[in-house]
Amino acid sequence: MAGILLSSCMTDDTRRLEDSYGSSSQAVELGGTHWQLVELISSDESIGTVRPGDPTQYEMHLNADGTVNLKLDCNRANGPWSSMRSADGASGGFNIGPIVMTRAMCGPGSLDQRISRELQSVRSYTLGEGRLNLSLTSDTGIQGWEPIDQDQK
Fold it and tell me: Are 72 and 37 in contact (CB under 8 A)?
């Protein structure tokens, strides 16, 4: 009965996400999903929106065991993550970190340091239109991530 009630609360985007990644655990509904960064939106108008030149250089793997593996340009990072889905099924609380990251010097224009700093300030998520949007504390910005098709990797 609880599964039926939970299922009725999920949006079509959440169902597609769970169907795509085979995850139906209510504790870690995002567990086992893989994402690539498509944009960083800052609430500071002088910074605006930044899109990576090559989104495949910025990947986030939310493992079902509560660990995250990140590819941040020329660096790699790992740490814990957790989420708590809200009643609407398409949003909720989100926490990541602390993360441990390699310290290679990436090329000019790399977003590695900004992403790692921002990820540790994420407070919530929303799922919609095929994207995972991570909202930063104090409404300072949003990180937009799209699913990686694991069949093409």
Answer: no
Mean pLDDT of 17-45: 70
CA 76, 82, 85, 91 torsion-angle sign: negative
d(CA 90, CA 40): 20
CA distance linking residue 25 with residue 38, whole number of Å: 26
pLDDT one-digit tens code per residue, 78-135: 999 999 999 887 899 999 999 999 999 999 999 999 999 999 999 999 998 889 999 9
Expressed in angstroms, the distance from the first to the final Cα of the chain is: 38
Q: What's the domain range around 58? A: 2-152
Mean per-residue pLDDT over the chain, rounded:
83
CATH at 140:
2.40.128.270
Structure token pair of residue 13 = 């985007």
Give the pTM: 0.78
d(CA 148, CA 64): 16
Q: What is the DSSP string of 72-126?
A: ETTEEEEEEEEEEE-TTSSEEEEEE---EE----PPTT--HHHHHHHHTTEEEEE
